[in-house]
Amino acid sequence: MSDAQSRQVFKAIRRIVRAIDIRSKEVARATGLTIPQIVVLQGVQDLGEVTTTTLSKHADLSSATVVTILDNLERKGLVTRHRSDQDRRVVYTRLTDHGRQTLDTVPDLLQEEFKLKFAARSVHERERLVAAILSIAEMMDADDLDASALLVTGNVHP
Description:
This protein has helices spanning 3-31, 35-47, 52-59, 63-75, 97-105, 112-119, 123-139, 142-153, and strands spanning 50-51, 79-83, 91-95. It is mainly alpha-helical. The chain has a single domain (3-153), classed as Orthogonal Bundle (Arc Repressor Mutant, subunit A). It has a three-stranded antiparallel sheet. Residues 6-138 form the HTH marR-type domain. This is HTH marR-type domain-containing protein. One of its GO terms (molecular function) is DNA-binding transcription factor activity. InterPro entries: HTH_MarR-typ, MarR/SlyA-like, WH-like_DNA-bd_sf, WH_DNA-bd_sf.
């Protein structure tokens, strides 16, 4: 990759990160929840009663991050957790009624303008864009960054 291409890629990714950061702040102001908290709540809704390991895979977050998020969501009364009767080491999470009601009021995580522009593309182009974004995430080893950041900094920012 040339230096010019590298700069272009970095600048484009930086613009995406900035747009996501702005949207995250808008959503947090509207809901009192961070985007990772909403993603975890949606995961619990999608999967039903679920273990932390399964939820972390579904949400693309480390188990440690999901546990911290679940602690916060439990304090807010949005989820409950309980140990398995068969294996006390296994903990299940489920939505509360308050959690379901909260999810009903959560705004879309993607900006409306993006959704409209994306929908205006052909099916083939939308598929290409999704494949390209997934490929970029894989090239950046995004799956491993969450755990690596925790090891380096010792911080969790759910």
